[in-house]
């Protein structure tokens, strides 16, 4: 019978064992770090921001650059009273009281026609704003001090900017009604831009509020011009009311 020979395993010195153990621990630690990183990235329990949320954050970051006179202590707080004067000219109450005042004192038919349509346009704008603000329900920027001339419950919301809708709408109406061209159109554009920037400077709105508000205002103006109430129509409407 042949005898079976057993081979003894090679004997490793201490330094070799130490190096192999060190390499093994290093690889193990690297795998654990990668696993932990992947868990953080793909953890279903961890909330992830949608593209819309990221867009709103970018809107806030860019808008905050313009909040230079949101309060008297702001960087440009000294010009806050001037910017608030611009704010008054875009207030819906002003665009209702001024036409009413002209209607009381004037007998010019064209001016009566114009003022009645401006009143109708302002009422139309307020209705559109009510719907859009309630649908969006976007809070105003934290920088806003809430010291506007007239504030109702719906006006606590930010989107879209009512001052910008009125600036865009009235500019469109005036240009179309009086057939203005050239420099007058440029002047109207400057007024719209000034109103938009003033809303940002006071911290009332975000950039998207004023841009969308201006676009909505132009659209409102086009609707008002399309359904313009003429003097003849006004006389017919008044005669119907008087008969009843």
Could you list some keywords that capture this structure?
mainly alpha, elongated, 244 residues
How many individual β-strands?
A: 0
How many DSSP H or I helices?
9
- Beta percentage is under 5%
What's the average pLDDT? 83
Helix content: 55-70%
Shape: elongated
Report the structural category: mainly alpha
Rounded to an integer, what's the Rg over CA atoms?
Answer: 34 Å
Please write the string of helix (H) and strand (E) elements. HHHHHHHHH
Cα distance spanning the termini: 134 Å
Given as residue ranges, the uncertain stretches (5+ residues, pLDDT < 50) are 37-42
Give the biggest sheet.
Answer: none
In short:
With 244 residues, the protein is mainly alpha-helical. The chain is built from nine helices and no strands.
What can you see in these coordinates?
The protein is mostly helical and 244 residues long. 66% of the residues lie in helices and 0% in strands. The protein has 9 helices and no strands. It has helices at residues 14-42, 51-64, 80-89, 94-105, 109-136, 162-177, 183-201, 207-226, 231-243. The longest helix is centred in the N-terminal third of the chain and has 29 residues, at 14-42. Residues 37-42 have low confidence and may be disordered.
Record the SSE blueprint.
Blueprint: H1 14-42, H2 51-64, H3 80-89, H4 94-105, H5 109-136, H6 162-177, H7 183-201, H8 207-226, H9 231-243
Helix pairs in contact: 3-7, 4-5, 5-6, 5-8, 6-7, 6-8, 7-8
């Amino acid at each position: 019978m042949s005898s079976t020979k057993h081979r003894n395993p090679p004997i490793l010195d201490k330094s070799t064992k130490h190096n192999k153990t060190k390499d093994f621990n290093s690889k193990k630690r690297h795998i654990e770090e990668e696993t932990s990183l992947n868990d953080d990235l793909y953890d279903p329990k961890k909330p992830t921001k949608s593209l819309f949320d990221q867009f709103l954050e970018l809107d806030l970051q860019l808008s905050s650059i313009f909040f230079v006179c949101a309060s008297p202590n702001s960087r440009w707080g000294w010009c806050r009273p001037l910017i608030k004067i611009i704010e008054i000219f875009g207030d819906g109450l002003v665009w209702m009281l001024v036409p009413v005042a002209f209607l009381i004192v004037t007998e010019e038919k064209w001016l009566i026609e114009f003022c009645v349509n401006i009143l109708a346009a302002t009422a139309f704008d307020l209705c559109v704003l009510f719907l859009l603000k309630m649908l969006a329900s976007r809070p105003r920027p934290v920088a806003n001090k809430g010291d506007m001339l007239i504030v109702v419950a719906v006006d606590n919301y930010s989107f879209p900017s009512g001052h910008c809708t009125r600036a865009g709408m009235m500019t469109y109406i005036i240009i179309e009604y009086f057939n203005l061209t050239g420099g007058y159109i440029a002047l109207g554009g400057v007024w719209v831009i000034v109103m938009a920037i003033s809303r940002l400077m006071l911290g009332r709105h975000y950039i998207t509020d004023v841009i969308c508000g201006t676009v909505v205002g132009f659209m409102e103006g086009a609707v008002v011009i399309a359904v313009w109430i003429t003097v003849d129509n006004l006389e017919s409407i008044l005669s119907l009311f008087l008969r009843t």
